[in-house]
Design a protein that fits this description.
mainly alpha, Arc Repressor Mutant, subunit A, Tetracycline Repressor, domain 2, 2 domains, 9 helices, 0% strand, elongated, DNA-binding, Homeodomain-like_sf, HTH_TetR, TetR/AcrR family transcriptional regulator, Tet_transcr_reg_TetR-rel_C_sf
């Protein structure tokens, strides 16, 4: 048990160090030796946990997805589905603001993996997107059942619309340099989703 906990602690320390290294040097220029030096361990130790820097980066992404998911999951306890939607969007945007450098790095290396690695990466994205969509579907279904949103459009289609607005907001934020204030766009986004562009 102690050995397992020690191994997990080493792995987390390596991932923390790698996040700093990737942020400082970029993915292409970073080396496993740089990660080892940042973590304060021998290069061989890093290879005991990860076979290459691509695997390190995928592990960072998986850990990040899990952190975001857990933070959003907390808000699923809210009774009002509209407030649940708002709180979840605020939480996701706040997380992105806190970890903007990592997100920028992820976007910038989209073409950096070979085909086999891209398939693994795609599988990871599909799996995590499915989890987020399941939460979104549940919230939208609850809101529709309570008569808070229109029911003449399927929950699946509404989720596509909400996801599209969210993605567009995030990528606009990235294109404009990840300036502070993304989390402040959560409520206007949800208002637009609920009410459209029609003047009140």
């Amino acid at each position: 048990m102690v050995r397992t906990e020690t191994r997990a602690a080493y792995r987390e320390a390596i991932l923390d160090a790698a996040t700093r290294v990737f942020g400082r040097l970029g993915f292409q220029d970073a080396k496993m030796a740089d990660i080892a030096a940042e973590a304060g361990v021998a290069a061989g130790t890093v290879y005991n946990y990860f076979k290459n820097k691509e695997e390190v980066f995928r592990s960072i992404l998986q850990r990040t997805h899990e952190l975001v998911y857990q933070r959003i999951l907390v808000h699923q306890q809210l009774e009002d589905p509209i407030e649940r939607m708002r709180a979840s969007t605020r939480e996701a945007f706040a997380f992105l603001e806190e970890h903007g450098a990592l997100f920028l790095l992820y976007v910038s290396i989209g073409g950096g993996f070979d085909w086999a690695q891209k398939r693994v990466e795609q599988a990871l994205m599909v799996e995590n997107t499915a989890r987020y969509l399941a939460l979104s579907h549940a919230t939208l279904r609850d809101a529709a059942a309570r008569g808070l949103i229109r029911s003449d459009v399927s929950v699946e289609q509404l989720a596509v619309f909400l996801s599209g607005l969210t993605d567009a907001t995030i990528f606009t934020w990235v294109r404009t340099g990840c300036e502070p204030g993304l989390r402040d766009q959560a409520d206007p986004l949800i208002d637009f989703f609920l009410n459209g562009a029609r003047a009140p």
